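Forum > Structural Biology > Help requests

Title: Can anyone predict the 3D structure of SWIM-type domain-containing protein?

Hi all, first post here. I have the sequence for SWIM-type domain-containing protein but no way to get a structure on my laptop. I'd be grateful if someone could post the structure tokens.
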Amino acid sequence: MTHTAHTPASTRPVRRKTTLESDGLTGRARRARTEPMAVRPLRDGRYVVETDGGTYVVDVEARTCTCPDHAIRHTRCKHLRRVAIEITRGEIPPPGHRSATCAVCGDETFVPMDARGPQLCADHEHHTGDLVRDRETGSLLVVTRAMERRADETPTETGKHVSEYESNVDYGDHEPVFEAVYLDSLPADAGLAELGRLKTYRFPASRLSRVERGFVGTRSLGERLARA
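Reply #1:
Sure, ran it for you. Structure tokens for SWIM-type domain-containing protein below:
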């Protein structure tokens, strides 16, 4: 079985000025797309926009920019528009978020500024209540929580780290660990509140493949199965 257990962190190039398609727009909306700009997020949630005419600081949440167009005319300038476009396109993180590297695939992802430990992209993240499948055994499990710690830093009940088990050698030591319970062990009335009271097992993130988001949610497992 082949996994991306040892995917190196991606090397992010320095952001250079780029242009976008005009999409038939005019005025500031057009200039926001067609003029060369490089947008770079700052740690305080604002953005630096470098243009051929100067460098400005944009605050998306306050809807301000340090450029003369905004300062004098109080308009939604091309710099504010460009930052909004790049956030919508997923090219830069939204306010309150920062760039991180997915511990499974190495792709860039955006996480809360205060996020700690190894991070995952949307394709490899798991959430409490998700139905997942163990790639090694084929068993179905329900995720109970994210440990937010690496597999080589997370012990199990036996004292061994998750990464030390032979069944986990094909998965990255640097991956975050998730706790999960076997689907067959869940009582029919199990809901999110009950998941943490059951016997759990720990797995590296990529050993669990997603089957269904929110399989156990506000409704109990019995209610879900009755509607299936």
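The first strand starts at residue 37 and ends at 41. Confidence is low (pLDDT under 50) at residues 1-12.
Shout if anything looks off.
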